[in-house]
Automatic annotation (TrEMBL):
The lineage of its organism: Bacteria, Pseudomonadati, Bacteroidota, Cytophagia, Cytophagales. Keywords: Hydrolase, Metal-binding, Zinc. This is MBL fold metallo-hydrolase. Its cofactor is Zn(2+). Coiled coil: none annotated. It comes from the Bacteria. Pfam families: Lactamase_B. InterPro entries: MBL_Glyoxalase_II (IPR051453), Metallo-B-lactamas (IPR001279), RibonucZ/Hydroxyglut_hydro (IPR036866). Residues 13-195 form the Metallo-beta-lactamase domain.
Length: 217
């Protein structure tokens, strides 16, 4: 069984996710923790639940999703994996972090690259890697078919989609990829976004004003 624990960190109210199996083997996705209290909250949960983290994954590399990368790699002894197309996005964070008030930001470097169509092993569970650019050039999502759960990052939100006015954004591409990569999943699939509450693919197909059945093309 795949367990998903979410945390909401930093002024952007970013959702950080811990995924782990019944034996306590897990991965950390998009650690947005920056303040000491946020890092302690995440670390305490990992220790109290005896979770053995094996890898750090970024859905994409905008600042709010990578603030805790370097700390997590060091604290848990784990390597970082991102999509290669988002490497420039990750490297750029150091140049503008202080503009957002993150003067103590620590840069991170990936150890490997995620590839579309491949899988990530989370103990006894498997995550599918799906490539959904548009919000960011190297944005990926992670789908657990057995439980029907999706870590959607900033692609699809409840009643909205990721913004596409940042460098590397592409509005039409994001709409196309949501339809082909996310709306092809079962309607009951639960999507856990990078911000805000979870939703379902079926709900967004009907109600989402950007990509739902009543959306203006």
């Amino acid at each position: 069984m795949l367990h998903i624990k979410s945390f909401t960190f930093n002024p952007f109210q970013e959702n950080t996710y811990l995924l782990y199996d019944d034996q306590g083997t897990g991965v950390l996705i998009d650690p947005g923790c920056y303040e000491k209290e946020e890092k302690e909250e995440l670390k305490d949960y990992v220790q109290e639940n005896q979770i053995k983290l094996t890898q750090l994954l970024n859905t994409h590399c905008h600042i709010d999703h990578v603030l805790g990368n370097a700390w997590a790699m060091r604290t848990f002894g784990i390597s970082l994996a991102i999509h290669k197309a988002d490497l420039p996005v990750l490297k750029a964070v150091e140049t503008y972090a202080s503009n957002y008030g993150f003067h103590a930001f620590e840069p991170s470097e990936p150890n490997e690259f995620l590839e579309e169509g491949k899988t990530i092993q989370v103990g006894t569970e498997l995550l599918q890697i799906r490539f959904v650019p548009g919000h960011a050039p190297g944005h990926v999502v992670f789908y657990h078919e057995e439980s029907g759960q999706l870590i959607a990052g900033d692609t699809l939100f409840r009643g909205s989609i990721g913004r596409t006015d940042l460098p590397g954004g592409n509005h039409n591409l994001l709409l196309s990829k949501i339809k082909s990569e996310l709306f092809s999943l079962p309607d009951e699939t639960v999507a856990f976004p990078g911000h805000g509450p979870e939703t379902t693919i079926g709900y967004e197909k009907i109600h989402n004003p950007f990509v739902g059945i009543n959306a203006r093309s």
